[in-house]
Design a protein that fits this description.
By secondary structure, the chain is an alpha+beta fold. It has one domain (2-179): Yope Regulator, Chain: A (2-Layer Sandwich). It is built from four helices and six strands. Strands 1-2-3-4-6-5 form a six-stranded antiparallel beta sheet. The longest helix is centred in the C-terminal third of the chain and has 25 residues, at 132-156.
Length: 182
């Protein structure tokens, strides 16, 4: 398994400008995994740690040619815990965001009481098909940057989901009425 992880590390490093470190198995993650250090524009969080871990599953018949692929997970735990009074709002907003996100993956983890971005990514054994991997990682980072602050605001009670829905509805109605004139 480390062979594919090493090859994947080299491939990602050559296609994305990220600091990547291989973490060995430990008590928290009993399998080797990568931590991608992603720079951000936020002063309170200058780097975001994005995990890339192998799920230990192999997909058969991945493509029309009968290829196989290992399933990897892109994982980002949001740094702050969710206030207990806002859990239902966060769960509801995750569902709404995942409907419009180009890469769904926002979830509330009941065990850790945390907001996560988690999505699976097939990594074909045929390395010629790896071109989509940097794009998927970049898309995951974009989704976290786009939707993460709003989800975090709801998790902390700064914004209410009902007011966000009202704003979105009002914007949609006004945009729609400007397009369709009687």
């Amino acid at each position: 398994m480390k062979d594919i992880l090493e090859a994947l590390k080299e491939y990602i490093a050559s296609n994305l400008d990220l600091s990547i470190s291989l973490m060995d198995a430990n008590d928290e993650a009993p399998f080797p995994h990568y931590i991608l250090e992603v720079p951000t524009l936020q002063q309170d969080e200058p780097y975001r740690m994005l995990g890339l871990l192998q799920l230990g599953q192999t997909l058969t018949d991945y493509s029309a040619m009968g290829e196989t692929a290992d399933l990897f997970q892109i994982l980002y735990p949001f740094p702050r815990l969710i206030k207990p009074t806002h859990v239902k709002d966060v769960e509801r907003l995750c569902q709404l965001v995942n409907k419009v996100s180009p890469l769904p993956g926002f979830v509330y983890d009941e065990v850790d009481k945390a907001l996560l971005f988690r999505t699976a990514l097939p990594v074909p054994h045929n390395r010629k098909q790896w071109a989509s991997i940097p794009a998927a990682i970049t898309l995951a980072i974009d989704c976290i940057d786009t939707f993460g602050p709003t989800l975090d605001n709801v998790a902390q009670g700064v914004e209410k989901i009902d007011s966000l829905i009202d704003k979105a509805t009002d914007n949609f109605v006004s945009d729609f009425s400007n397009i369709i004139k009687p």
